[in-house]
Amino acid sequence: MKKVEAVIRHFKLEDVKNALSEQGISGMTITEVRGFGRQKGHTEMYRGTEYAVDFVPKVKLEVVVSDDNIKSVIDTVMRSAQTGQIGDGKIFVTDLAETIRIRTGETGEEAL
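Above: the chain's sequence. Below: its structure in token form.
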């Protein structure tokens, strides 16, 4: 099993969620996060004063999938989250050693 973490733009979340649902992905976790990469933040004007916004607001989406589905999930997230501009985000994939459903005690892929 793999855990896919994607840091994406806020306005792309609905597109990504719908695309993953069409793929049969039944669960995901969404967190509002802030950070920066190559973008290095941006400047804004407030009441005539310019100030720097060092951390850009993003959304982190977490999905756990079987090894068989990993390629299609990554392709789906990339296709639906991409705008072609700097700041589209990143995808991180990690191996999961164990997954346990608390309610039933099921483990592995049955816990998904």
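Residues 70-81 form the longest helix (12 residues).
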